[in-house]
Amino acid sequence: MLNYPEIVEQLIDELRTLPGVGRRAAERMTLALLERDNDSLAMLGGIISAIPEKVWRCPECGAMAEKGELCEICSSPRRDKSLLCVVEGMPQLFSVEASGQYSGTYLVLGGHISPVDDRFESRLNIDGLQKKVSSGEVKEVILALSSDVEGRATAAYLAEMLANSGVLVSRPALGLPAGANLSFVNAATIGAALRGRTVENPE
Ligand SMILES: [Zn+2]
Known about the structure:
Elements: H1 6-16, H2 23-34, H3 38-54, E1 55-57, E2 64-66, E3 80-87, H4 90-98, E4 104-108, H5 120-123, H6 126-134, E5 140-143, H7 149-162, E6 168-171, H8 187-195, E7 198-199
Parallel strand pairs: 3-4, 3-5, 5-6
Antiparallel strand pairs: 1-2, 6-7
Helix pairs in contact: 1-2
The structure holds zinc ion.
Zinc ion binds at residues 58, 60-61, 63, 70-71, 73-74.
């Protein structure tokens, strides 16, 4: 059995950490990259290493944005600032956008609460959510979290936190498959779930 040079093995290990990439796929990608010429590899490396100086989290909502600017959604005058959709991360934000059924703004949490994590309050963008809610602009917070255990725990925590905040708290209607990450649910399902959302804290 032939061993790869050390740096090649390192690249395979890094690629394997990406979603949906197993050992064999990571090896195929790495071998394809090794076919490229030096300039092409340098360009790819340059793009990856430039990400921290070109991209940041939108200071309003935590979504991905050009560094120094608000994200496209927060800076758009066409988005309804009275609606705030809380999602775990960018894949979920893109899924809700793909449904074409949502014209409000977002709050990207940056993860979910897991049972073994007692530092989630500093890790997640909970301050950002509280700031948004206390701004007075938001009338309804939609907790569009996954229907797995962590997503449900996160939604329950946030619903409790916001129960007496004076804003409506709602959740998308059931129908998202249990254990499914929202990012894998198709656009039509998300659209229907958003339209049929239920209020958590009725007057
Ligand atoms: Zn934003």
